[in-house]
Amino acid sequence: ICDAVFGALGEGDIGQLFPNTDPRWHNAPSKTFLHEAARLVHLRSGRIVNVDATIIAEAPKIAPHAHAMKAMISHVLEVHPNRISIKATTNEGMGFLGRGEGIAAMAVASVDLPQ
Predict the structure, then answer these.
(1) Are 38 and 78 in contact (CB under 8 A)?
(2) More confident of the two residues 94 and 61
């Protein structure tokens, strides 16, 4: 989701803004990065319109956690929960995702910025 917001702003990706080689970010909670995404939007007098995220994983099941994830993301990004979508799908046993060797995620964020 951070990369989606940063991309909508024309910024770099999360690794450029928060390099994994910097010990400050080791074990940092995800909401730290979401706060920064929201801060950058607000610095430009913009607003996040919506977020649509899909998690691709065989396990764990996302549905039991989706409501809490949506609530936290909504709160941190200051976006109404109805404008946050958290979905999950499997890879139907195909590839490393299907074998349960990893998890992937995709997200799109719409950001309204003044001219």
Answers:
(1) yes
(2) 61
